[in-house]
Amino acid sequence: MPELLWKAYIDFEISEGEFERTRALYERLLNRTKHLKMWISCAKFEASTIDDSNIKQKNKCLQHARDVFERAVSYLINSAP
Questions:
Q1: What is the CATH number of domain 2-78?
Q2: Mean pLDDT, range 5-13, rounded to an integer
Q3: Model confidence over 29-61: pLDDT tens digits?
Q4: Neighbours of 49 (CB within 10 A)
Q5: Sorting pLDDT into bands at 50, 70 and 90, what band is 1?
Q6: What is the dihedral of CA 68, 18, 58, 61, to 10 degrees?
Q7: Where are the domains of the chain?
Q8: Is 80 in a helix, a strand, or coil?
Q9: How far apart are CA 77 and CA 60, in angstroms?
Q10: Which of 23, 30, 39, 60 could form a disulfide with 72 if both were Cys (CB 3.0 to 4.6 A apart)?
């Protein structure tokens, strides 16, 4: 199942702390499938990268997660039959 391969690759990059590579993987995956679960997974990833010791970084991570949700809403509204 290709979904399991994508998930394993994403989990690997997260475990290695390669957040930029993980973002790139999510972008590639979202270009292939626009499934709601993928949007949610991507937003959760963005929210999970928060470093509580740095308030600017925290705000940036939350903004990334918000941006993902806004893109998802826009896509889902525009693609509704």
A1: 1.25.40
A2: 94
A3: 998 888 889 999 999 999 888 776 677 777 888
A4: 18
A5: low
A6: -10
A7: 2-78
A8: coil
A9: 26
A10: 39
